Amino acid sequence: MTTSSSQVHSLAVPNRRLPRISLGMLLVLPALTAILLLYALPLARSLVTAFRDSSGAWTTDHVVRAFSLYGRDMLFSVGVVSVSLALIAAISIAISGYLVLGATPWAVRLLRWLYRWPLFIPFVVTGQIARSFLATNGMMNNVLVETGLMASSSAQSFLDWRGLVLTFAWKQVPFVTLLLAGAMAAVDRSHIEAARNAGANRLRCLFEIVLPQAAPSLWVGLILSLVAMLSVLSVPMMLISGNPTMMTAMMAHRITYYGDYGIANALGLFSYALTAVTAWVYLRLTLRREATA
Amino acid sequence: MSTEALTLNNVTVDLRQQRILDGIHLDVSPGSFTCLLGPSGCGKTTLLRAIAGFTPLSQGDIRLGARSITHLPPEKRHTAMVFQSYALWPHMSVGDNLGYPLKLRGVPRAERKRRIAAMLERLELGGFESRAVTQLSGGQRQRIALGRALIIDPPLLLLDEPLSNLDAAIRRSLRSELRRLQKSLGITTIMVTHDQEEALQMADQIVLMRAGKVIQVAAPQTLYQQPADLGVARFLGVDNTVTRHEQDPTVGSRAATFGFRTRDARINEPLRPATLTRKGRVTECVYTGDGYQISLDTNEAELFATANSPIALGTFAVLQVPESALIPFGPDDRHLPPLDRHEDIA
Ligand SMILES: Nc1ncnc2c1ncn2[C@@H]1O[C@H](COP(=O)(O)OP(=O)(O)OP(=O)(O)O)[C@@H](O)[C@H]1O
Ligand SMILES: [Mg+2]
């Protein structure tokens, strides 16, 4: 009854489908416009600017100069980001693993409560804290000297690549842990118990049973961290004074002192490429996993 | 590793200040098949988990063979547990699932491969090595989970309702398959079930639990014919209880109550000597496949009996139970030992 009447209806008024499409369009439009205007357009513009000279002619000049001027900074960025990601992954796995497999209930509860705090501190403040903590006469060295663990003469500044790595890790570990611990908690408890029953200790359980099942969340967390580290300006500006430094600092330098958008965009191009490659690798991995599952 | 005896001594478990298991004593002889039977929530799973090492004891001792395993972590106990949900690892193939316990024991790859293939043959799943476990049927998963437990030749096999997720037909066939496998390997096995039929069919010894305590440990026949008390009897299908009358058979003259099963009570048959009889009004008549189940309203209780043909509702009928089918209970609802019968007859 109902189907036939609705068929008749749609046959009689074929153009009734039209308003529905436009209603859908209407709903999508704000989001679409925002993405186009605020994201796609600037992205395209910056890509184009990277390949145009001041007269508007096409050129690869900016890219070549960006590489020759800032090649070291690019390598430095890649290095710092890679070491940071490795550190972030290691610490996040350790914390989430303990949250899921830990045998001391009060320690697990305390850790669960503690690890999230850095999440609520912005990058600028993090940079400031790290600065006063890691400097030559900063808190870390003071404590080490006071407690007699280190001679005051051997105190050195950590405000270089090490400071960057530590700061990035401090800021990003809680975020990645949040994702990873959630995914690990979702792993069926009996999978862990079955493994332990089969003879696996906690560590093997973590790396052979829990982590493989939670890995997609780890990858997502690391890729988002990569993007965050490549885009943050405050931390490298505050922690590193000389050369080489992160590309964001160099881009800002290029724009504020020279008004040179061409080279700044060429540097940006490199950041895009780096994240794009990582995202592509991740997609390949997940697609292959889904194909075999 | 050869099969071993299991001994539980005063095993007590508290979870969140609540006593879940209360002073459990149990001896399981090597190579035997023991069923833990009892109503939902009585602590069967908890007991199994305590043996496997997942639930800490607040008192007591668990021994496997000569050694105490009470304080060992689960991975050092070498028990093999099959989980109710099977708990196959979804990121590993069938072969990897079976091979993981061997890998943990450092068995070389070639040897692993050979033993996985042999186990799959044994489970009648030959050639399934590279299948994803997510693509298996319920019965196949169950068998892989069993294979994963057996592949290390464990001294003790623990099964938590391994058949309860399966449909009736697979269940029956797996029941005998499991029993055959257990016998051929001679492995000490403890299985949790709340299905009395399953326990009676499979077990050498049944442990009947209630509210965290062991009520009775007996062979299936003994448990079926001489349940420790009325509660156990009801759990084992003794649906009818009557208070003893003067004219009732002399068996267990000290009995206050008799219990009997519905299928032992007949309706409107020629009266025989040495039987218990009760008269009542028929209130219900249900076809059960083997015959008709009749509900009888007597003065003291509602009783159930079996008839070959339907009986009109509202009519009066006589229920008759042979003396041999009567289970005598004392005033405290405890079963009267068979010794009493002899004394009574003498
Ligand atoms: N982690 C826990 N914390 C607190 N109480 C628990 C916990 N696990 C189980 N219990 C309680 O212990 C009692 C026994 O549970 P258990 O799972 O052993 O029962 P069971 O005999 O296996 O029941 P079923 O036949 O329904 O599986 C239940 O009352 C349950 O509520
Ligand atoms: Mg249970």
From TrEMBL, chain A:
TM stretches of this protein: 21-41, 74-101, 113-134, 168-187, 218-241, 261-283
Location(s), subcellular: Cell membrane
Domain annotation ABC transmembrane type-1: ranges: 74-282
Keywords: Membrane, Transmembrane, Transmembrane helix, Transport
PROSITE patterns in the record: ABC_TM1 (PS50928)
Family of this protein: Belongs to the binding-protein-dependent transport system permease family.
Protein name: Sugar ABC transporter permease
Lineage: Bacteria, Pseudomonadati, Pseudomonadota, Gammaproteobacteria, Oceanospirillales
Automatic annotation (TrEMBL), chain B:
Single GO MF annotation: ABC-type ferric iron transporter activity
Keyword Calcium included in the entry's annotation: no
Signal peptide: none
GO cellular component labels: membrane
Annotated ranges, domain ABC transporter: 6-236
Keyword Cell membrane belongs to the record: yes
Keywords: ATP-binding, Cell membrane, Ion transport, Iron, Iron transport, Membrane, Nucleotide-binding, Transport
Domain of life: Bacteria
Single GO BP term: quaternary ammonium group transport
Matches recorded under Pfam families: ABC_tran (PF00005)
CDD domains assigned: ABC_Carb_Solutes_like
InterPro entries listed in its UniProt record: AAA+_ATPase, ABC_SmlMolc_Importer, ABC_transporter-like_ATP-bd, ABC_transporter-like_CS, ABC_transpr_FbpC, P-loop_NTPase
Name under which the protein is recorded: ABC transporter ATP-binding protein
